[in-house]
Each structure stands twice: as structure tokens, then as C-alpha cells.
Amino acid sequence: MRAIRAASTALLGAAAIALAAPAALAADGAPATNPRAPGAKAPGDFVVSPSVVAPGGRLTLSAPGCASTATASAGIFDTVTIAPGATASATVDADAKRGAVYTVLFNCTGGVQDTVALTISGTPTATPTISATILTPPRGVMGGLGGSMAPTSTEIAAGGALTLAAVGGTAYVALRRRSRAARRH
User: Cα 46 vs. chain centroid, distance in angstroms?
Assistant: First the structure.
């Protein structure tokens, strides 16, 4: 019985080390997966959320690509200052033209700048309408990953190895019990 405990403990320890190795390598100062030179622009360096807003609506602006203070300006809201690593909000003017696309200009203190498109939502309905359709009850939130992420080959190999170890351990225990029972009779 001691051999089984020792073997299972060794197997679990090896599995824990194998699964922790990638995290340990990343924590030891391995290069980032997407290194960029300072001041280089990439998608997502400047963000306007939502990208479609109604007149009088609120926006959230961020500049994760700036290491310093940034400003965002457009003709439909006041200039906003964004602190490094933070977000700022702005209110779109109530008289913004519906259906128009405005340009939001971002400027980093270091001289990096870029633009992002902001669309003002289309025309509203003149009067609210009531539909005569039958209402269905709410279905709730469809949460979880839902199969949107496939496992990597490393994860498949690790899972297969752990399954094989579990099956092997179970077979070993069953055979040991059977041989003990045969010796007693």
C-alpha cells in the first residue's frame, strides 16, 4: 500500500510541476508575447467605447498604448485628459448629427497620436409603438465559454497522461487486491 501512495504522490507532484513550468518561465522575466518598441502603435492602443452612441450619450475613452498622459478630442465633446493606465468619460453633445461619423483624436504626451471613428446612432422613432406580439419569458444569460476555446496540444497531452496514469493506478490496485485475495484462500 505504501508503494501506491508513493507512486500517486510522485505522479501528482510531477503533474503539478509540469503544469506550473510555463507560468514559472513567464514569471522569470521571459520576453513578452507581443513586445513593441516604445511609441509604436498597435490595434487597441486607443479605445472609444461604445463606438456607436446616441446624442447626449456617455463615452469611455482610454489610451492603454500611452505610457504618459493622453488627451482625446472631437468636435462633439470637450477635450478629455486621460491619466496613464486609466479611463476617462465624456458626454456627447445633444445636438450631434445623427448618422454622422466623427473622428476622435488621441494625443500622447510623448508625441504619439492616432484617430478612432465614432458613429452617432441613426434616427429615433417619432412615437413609441406597442407591438401586439406574444411576449416570451426571458431565457436567462447564456454564460460560459460554450466551446469557443479549443484546448492546446499541451493541454490534450497533459490530460491524456493524467487519464492514463489514473487508469494504470486503478488497474494496479485491482490486480494487487486480487493477488492478495488468492493468497488468503
Answer: 17
